[in-house]
């Protein structure tokens, strides 16, 4: 579980995060959504320790990040997996080398132990025959699977995903969404996903927070979106005719 309390973050005279408080739950996919400039990327970077809030606290299963020693922060970082927007794979490395990189850098595992773990996670993301391929030989969806495998190879407690569906076709995006959700539940990870993809919200939104101009304007589940009268979230979600039709159909079912 990750708990944030009254987080405030400014850049110069511009306050980007304005007293945000929420809880990201373990074993669930927690989504951060909002328009460009809403503060969602700054919030994600604050959770990762890239940005330091001027006010408020971020705690990881009771450990307040700002109170940790340098060694304790390094330990915490080994418990975090990250899926970057562009996958961020090393072009010169094979799939298995990319996936095994965190283990070589941050653990004392033997080569045999590393290979066993790498083989396991590559198999888990359904890339059995891709071990020796380079990223340039893979499709966008396959590259994203490699990025997910690398993010979970060290058995993280916390998984962060920044726009994991960026650049993917709708069918592949759904497959990646489902993979992230399956892994979250299977390994009981606290997963936080920064996304603008409303299909992701409706597919895997166990917990959703909606930011608007640096304020937490709404939070709930994907089911709650169909029932809320909060204008901030409804204006954002139902800007497309597709979701207007979905909500109309949902309301009919409820009645």
Strand content: 15-25%
Largest sheet: 6 strands, mixed
Unreliable stretches (pLDDT < 50, length at least 5) are: none
Q: What overall geometry do the principal axes of the alpha carbons give?
A: globular
How many separate helices?
10
- The level of helicity is 40-55%
Structure class: alpha/beta
Order of helices and strands: EEEHEEHEHHHEHEHEEHHH
Give the total of beta strands.
10
The radius of gyration computed from the alpha-carbon positions, rounded to a whole number of angstroms, is 19 Å
Major sheet strand order: 6-7-8-3-9-10
Q: How far from one another are the termini?
A: 36 Å
> Could you report the average pLDDT, rounded to the nearest whole number?
89
Descriptive notes:
Helices cover 41% and strands 24% of the residues. With 255 residues, it is an alpha/beta fold. The protein has a six-stranded mixed sheet. It has a four-stranded antiparallel sheet with strand order 2-1-4-5, covered by helices on one side. α5 packs parallel to α6. The mean pLDDT is 89. The longest helix is centred in the C-terminal third of the chain and has 18 residues.
Structure, briefly:
The protein has 255 residues and is an alpha/beta fold.
Attribute tags:
four-stranded antiparallel β-sheet, alpha/beta, single chain, 255 residues, six-stranded mixed β-sheet, globular
Give the SSE layout:
Elements: E1 2-11, E2 14-24, E3 29-33, H1 40-47, E4 55-60, E5 63-64, H2 70-77, E6 80-83, H3 95-106, H4 111-124, H5 140-152, E7 158-162, H6 170-187, E8 190-194, H7 198-204, E9 207-212, E10 215-220, H8 222-225, H9 231-237, H10 241-254
Parallel strand pairs: 3-8, 3-9, 6-7, 7-8
Antiparallel strand pairs: 1-2, 1-4, 4-5, 9-10
């Amino acid at each position: 579980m990750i708990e944030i309390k009254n987080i405030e973050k400014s850049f110069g005279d511009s306050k980007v995060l304005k007293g945000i408080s929420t809880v990201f739950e373990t074993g669930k996919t927690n989504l951060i959504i909002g328009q460009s400039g809403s503060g969602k990327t700054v919030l994600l970077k604050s959770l990762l320790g890239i940005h330091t809030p001027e006010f408020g606290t971020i705690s990881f299963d009771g450990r307040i990040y700002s109170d940790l020693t340098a060694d304790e922060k390094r330990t915490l970082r080994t418990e975090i997996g990250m899926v970057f927007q562009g996958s961020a794979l090393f072009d010169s490395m094979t799939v298995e080398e990319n996936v095994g990189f965190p283990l070589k850098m941050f653990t004392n595992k033997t080569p045999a132990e590393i290979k066993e773990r790498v083989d396991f996670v590559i198999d888990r993301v359904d890339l059995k025959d891709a071990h020796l391929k380079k990223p340039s030989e893979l499709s966008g969806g396959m590259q994203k699977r490699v990025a997910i495998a690398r993010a979970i190879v060290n058995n993280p407690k916390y998984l962060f995903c920044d726009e994991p569906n960026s650049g993917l076709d709708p069918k592949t995006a759904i497959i990646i969404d489902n993979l992230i959700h399956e892994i979250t539940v299977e390994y009981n990870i606290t997963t936080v996903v920064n996304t603008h993809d409303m299909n992701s919200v409706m597919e895997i939104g166990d917990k959703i927070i909606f930011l608007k101009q640096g304020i937490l304007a709404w939070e709930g589940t994907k089911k709650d979106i169909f029932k809320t009268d909060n204008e901030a979230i409804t204006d954002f979600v139902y800007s497309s005719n597709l979701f207007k039709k979905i909500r109309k159909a949902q309301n009919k079912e409820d009645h």
